[in-house]
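pinned: reference chain
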Amino acid sequence: MSVGINKFLSPAELSRLNRLTLQSRYVVEGSLAGRHRSPFRGASSEFADHRAYIAGDDPKRLDWKVLGRTDRYYIRRYEDETNLRVYLVVDRSASMDYGSGTVTKFEYAVRLAAALGYVVIRTRDSAGLYLFSEKLNTAIGARNSFAHLSNMLATLDRARPSKKTRTAMALHRIADDIQRRALIVLMSDLLDDPDEIALALAHFRRQHHDVIVFHVLDDAELELPFPRGAEFEDLETGEKIGADPRSMRDEYRKAFGDFIEKHRQACAQLRVDYRLVNTKRDLDLFVRAYLEERKRISR
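pinned: its structure tokens
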């Protein structure tokens, strides 16, 4: 079964994504020519061939002689440049099934993965997918084709949040699985041991992977806005507890803020790009702002 990108993103959103690219901040390895630095040097810097211009390419790379002869835009390719492998890593544990509004954290993460996958494939890079909960559930290698993107979208469409979280274990498994330098994009609520997660992220960095962490949280988790006492249930354990949010709101916000800050600081120390993502934020605006910012800092 194939699933089209239109199931996740509107035509207007796709149109705006067409002008964007996902850049790596570090060297990568691959097999197609692209916009990313390669770790290989020497004779490989020789001119190789041309490819059609894609929106987002550096205009300085245009071959003006070819343009004059054919009236078409082509980019000069060199053998020291390579495509980027991007692995989208999505948390499908039960806690991701929470949503105080119209969308759950998991649904938001899936749309975010679909948007990034589309950007990656459209710009001739390669995308792969991992899904995890208390174990690694799905592993799809990185390829560069819209048919491959459709297969990944079908997998995301079928997936449902379930079971407990063992984030660090799953990330170590993924790090062992990816043999060549890549860009790892983690989408998770990170409701697990921050120290263990930091060790897993360090595993990626030791292997010279570029890493992005999208910390996906619901606004109610951040603010605890509930006006009266209620019974709260842990989606992963089923444990229930009664509490009055009004009497504990300040203490809760401080504790949860400390939890977020611990993840943020760990990522900063590891040179991992961390972003807190509130699911009430328009996904289209978030993706565009983030990719434009990353393009500036990756130059």
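why pinned: Residues 41-79 form one domain. Residues 38-45 have pLDDT under 50 and may be disordered.
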